[in-house]
Amino acid sequence: MKRLFGTFTKFEIAWFALSMAVVVAPFFAVGSREWHYLAASVLGVASLTFTSKGNVLGEFLMVAFSILYGVISYSFAYYGEMITYLGMTLPISAASIVAWLRHPSQKGHSEVLVAKLGAREYANSFLLGVGVTVPFYFLLRHFGTPNLPVSTLSVFTSFTAVWLTVKRSPFYAFAYAANDAVLIVLWTLAARTDRSYWAMVACFAGFLMNDLYGFFNWNRMLKRQAEES
Description:
Blueprint: H1 2-5, H2 10-29, H3 35-52, H4 57-75, H5 79-102, E1 104-105, E2 108-112, H6 119-142, H7 148-166, H8 171-191, H9 198-228
Antiparallel strand pairs: 1-2
Helix pairs in contact: 2-3, 2-9, 3-4, 3-9, 4-5, 5-7, 6-7, 7-8, 8-9
């Protein structure tokens, strides 16, 4: 345990504990028995906690989360979420593992070397996201995906987030925070028909907390690493 959290400050440990409480408490409050929802939430929060520290363990956990989340999304016919996480987030997270291990900071593999991208690279990321999202819209419409506009927006924000994660940009967290906000809306709509899905709303509320902190911490890491080099 000390090895895992050795680089965490007291604030970060408290933030992690609070994030876990945010996703675990509602699960029991609504009396859910869908234990894979809880497992996905815990895995996801742990993933984003380590990712916010630039620790590659977060990407390994994201691979596991993507599998569970794909199963949950299929249960409500959110095919966009299922395809996005199994067909896009999972393999790109695997690519992130390789990219992060190849670019450690001076602190070693416990922290990735943060990259400062130029405006052109961000523009390319945006255009690539649009290029991926447009065909997804027609695919999701073909399968009769519920809440199609929100599901389509989720594809765009999710792709942008994982792409910027591979690029090691602090704005990965900003894109993920946008995706979290979209998914809170998406699962709130689902919870109107099945209250057990409130656990997923809580899950992404916990994600939002960690992604906002991740954006702050990665910018701090970028500044510190620049001074060290």
